[in-house]
Amino acid sequence: MSVLVYINSKNGLHKSAFEAVTYGKKLGDVTVITTGALSADQLATLGNYGAAKVLVDRSVEGEDDQQLTRVIASAAEVCSANTLIFSHDLVAKAVAPRLSVRLKAGLISGAIGVPSTDGTVPVNVFSGKAFGHVKVNASRTIISLLPNSIQPEENGSACSVEDFNGNAGSAGVKVLSTKKPEGEIPLPEAELVVSAGRGLKGPENWGIVEDLAAALGAATACSRPVADIGWRPHHEHVGQTGVAIRPNLYIAAGISGAIQHLAGVNGSKVIVVINTDSEAPFFKAADYGVVGDAFEVLPRLTEAVKKFRASGH
Amino acid sequence: MKILVCISKSPDTTSKISFTDNSTKFDENGVQYIVNPYDEWYALVRALEIKEANGGNVTIISVGAAGDEAVIRKALAIGADDAVRIDTDPTDAYYTAMQIAEYAKSNGFDLVLTGKETINYNGSQVGGMIAEALDQPFVSVATKLDVNGTTLTLEREINGGIEVVEVNTPAVVSCAKGMAEQRIPNMRGIMAARTKPLQVVAPVAVDQMTTYVNYTMPNAKSACKMIDPSNMDQLVEFLHNEAKVI
Fold first, then answer.
1. How far is A52 from chain B (nearest CA, A)?
2. Are the Cβ atoms of B225 and A287 closer than 8 angstroms?
């Protein structure tokens, strides 16, 4: 089976790209389609995750949804792909639905695993409170995979890289400017996340959260009330109406664990809850619990992590 | 400016989620339906603000059976001019999007707004599908939207940042937090909503591309292991040796 994997290589290659290629390899022979300026040598490393070939359309620099749709559709025709794989990021959310219409393909978005023997693909539904098992009734399938849903698998090989003309056409959306915080780990892709809520009492107290995140190499997140009152930026808000994440480790301090918050984080592999209230509902969803004051526990945990990291981990 | 706002019903955010008929159907028993928050708080309210500033018309569209009219009236109470209900059960995002695109095509809107996703199926699919069917640009997950004649200036989330973009109408935009503030309908709005035009339109024939075969619930967590707050070395040790996450 011919599988086409779209990789966003605009900011280099990230783990989510390796996950998508690994996922594609489990389903068939993988051709990667990408755009932009990344060197052929760098793109060839996708062979390590199972790609047989990378097609790159150098004429497209940005992330225009109509241009990407045309390029990916051309690539799907060229390699007769009956399955397309995306990482479920903001580009996929714009482009995969368009391709579904253009290619008359069934779209499964937010997949959290590989297809099972009955052909259904597991996805998050009800904001992570349940899983749906979806099958496609069309001859083509598009799957967009939630980050951190599978482990990248390496095989040590490189692959060929070919320039490709996907007839991108003109962009419908004109980009005026971009604001990008430097050096931050994108929250949906982060493997380790430190999060805090109203228990921190004010934005000036976030230093102890950032210190722990820095010691761990984690991203920071927050609960909805904290984003709503402007203590933290909206893109850090995890929960039902914020971002849904599935890191390996989610540490929550001063968050009681309302059902809407749990919806955004219950895909996490391990949850640590720190709260002064031993009756906080979040403890029911936690793997490890600490009943204590975040202002004392977080700095102590930061010191313990620093000691652990200093010992060579 | 003629604006079409797509709304979907979704279970109240506090709803307990369970399934029936051998885990093949969402159990609606005791579930309160609301207008999907992204559709209401951001798409609909911003559409109304644009109309209040520039004039024009705001139409609500929803794909659903007659029972969904209560949810449509809730949205009308916030302040749209009229509403359209495509009279069919929405089977999947593609089916829903094609119904809306068909109506939009024959009625000509400058701007189609959706929420960035629904809180029940979380697909983020319908907006992009409508845009492709209408061959219009699509700005997804927009957090700000300003109108100047036929030019839209928007802010949207991109991977790891924010982008300021410009696009000409007609266009499709999916709306996220930041675009507007929730409005609570007042008594006058609720009364007026009762008599606002709600047109019922027959569906067009569309293939169902995907099927939700069944549903499962996450495994229950085993009991939470409590750690002494003075002994964070022990927590680190558990995270390393037992949970193997650091």
1. 26
2. yes
Question: A65 and A118 share a domain?
Answer: yes
Our count of domains for chain A comes to: 2
Burial of A206 (0-12, 13-18, 19+ CB in 10 A): middle
DSSP state of A110: E
Q: What H or E segment, with its residue span, contains residue A145? A: strand A141-145
Domain residue limits, chain B: 2-212
> A217, A163, A165: which is closest to A194 by C-alpha?
A217
Distance between CA A153 and CA A56 in Å, rounded? 23
Cβ–Cβ contacts within 10 Å for residue B29, how many?
Answer: 8
Distance CA B231, CA A129 (A): 33
Taking an 8 Å cut-off on Cβ atoms, the answer to whether A301 and B245 are in contact is no
Rg, C-alpha atoms of chain A? 21
Chain B: closest CA distance from residue A158 (Å): 27
A213 and A122 housed in the same domain: no
Closest by Cβ to B246, choosing from A216, A291, A297: A216
Superfamily of domain B2-212: HUPs (3.40.50.620)
How far apart CA B218 and CA A246 sit, in angstroms, is: 13
A45 vs A43: CA distance, rounded Å: 5
Instruction: Quote the minimal CA–CA distance from A51 to chain B in Å.
Output: 23
List CB contacts (< 8 A) between B122 and chain A: 109-110, 124-127, 244
CA-based end-to-end distance of chain B: 54
**Residue-number span of the structural domain to which A205 is assigned:** 187-310
CATH number of the domain encompassing residue A22: 3.40.50.620
Residues A208 and A280 in one domain: yes
3-state secondary structure of A48: helix
At which residue do the structure tokens 């095989």 appear? A155
pTM confidence score: 0.91
In tens digits, what is the pLDDT along chain A, a chain of 313 residues? Answer: 999 999 999 889 989 999 999 999 999 999 999 999 999 999 999 999 999 999 999 999 889 999 999 999 999 999 999 999 999 999 999 999 999 999 999 999 999 999 999 999 999 998 788 999 999 999 999 999 999 999 999 999 999 999 999 999 999 999 999 987 655 677 888 999 999 999 999 999 999 999 999 999 999 999 999 999 999 988 899 988 888 899 999 999 999 999 889 989 988 999 999 999 999 999 999 999 999 999 999 999 999 999 999 998 8
Check: CB of residue A3 under 8 Å from CB of residue A55.
no
Q: Do A38 and A157 belong to one domain?
A: yes
Read off φ and ψ for residue A128, nearest 5 degrees. Answer: 85, 0
SS3 per residue for chain B: CEEEEECCEEECCCCCCCEECCCCEECCCCCCEEECHHHHHHHHHHHHHHHHHHCCEEEEEEECCHHHHHHHHHHHHHCCCEEEEECCCCCCHHHHHHHHHHHHHHHCCCEEEEECCCCCCCCCCHHHHHHHHHCCCEEEEEEEEEEECCEEEEEEEECCEEEEEEEECCEEEEECCCCCCCCCCCHHHHHHHHHCCEEEECCCCCCCCEEEEEEECCCCCCCCEECCCCCHHHHHHHHHHHCCCC
